[in-house]
Amino acid sequence: MRNLSDSVALITGASSGIGRAISVKLAHLGYKLCLIGRNVEKLKSVKAETEGYGVEVKYFKVDLYSDREIYDLKEKFLEHFDNLDILIHSAGEFSMGYLESASLDDFDRQIQINMRAPFLLTQVMLDLIKNRKGEIIFINSSAGLNARAKFSQYAATKHALKAIADSLRDEVNIAGVRVTSIFPGRTATPMQEKVLEMEARTDKEKIMARLLQPSDVAEVIAHVISLPRTAEVTDLIVRPFQKAI
Fold this sequence. Notes:
Blueprint: E1 8-11, H1 17-29, E2 32-37, H2 40-51, E3 57-61, H3 67-78, E4 86-89, H4 104-132, E5 135-139, H5 152-172, E6 178-184, H6 190-198, H7 204-210, H8 214-226, E7 235-238
């Protein structure tokens, strides 16, 4: 098991939802944190909460739509940290609609955030991960395994993200790097609230209470990264215990 006193985790989408919950859990475990998001006020809030565990926390406002900002992130990161042990891709973009009428602009945004940005950020930070024989975790979605009506765009990007993770694993296992895809079912996040609004659900609060909670996913990740180095979780499905929808 790695020495957590100098272990660093970088989490995208850290300002809310699953990304925030992961940040809190890893801080509790003793990881130094690099938090990535677009909302500075929310990042400050996560920083204040996670610093309460006595760990070093830095945050950077990064627009994952911008290749330049992704490239620049590495230089900013290295100003504060000497190494990177865990890279967690939790940022996501969602839109739904029938294929015959869905917006190509919406599709392009999802391609950028859900697929292209994780690919590029992994490419940029991979040498640091290899140096530490670390791990890369992709927060995917149940839609990345099973595409339903009106989810064609989102599901396509998540299917592609699984392919990226699978190929990457085959490339970097030999370097001692573990790669895991997590496939949560519906989870009580701001994105899920948006989905329920799109579905015109009138019982939103009741549904949200019965869904997976972000902290549930964070607990799963804690178990994955704590495994002995003789084991690797490649794909893990997590779903609500009781059917909520």
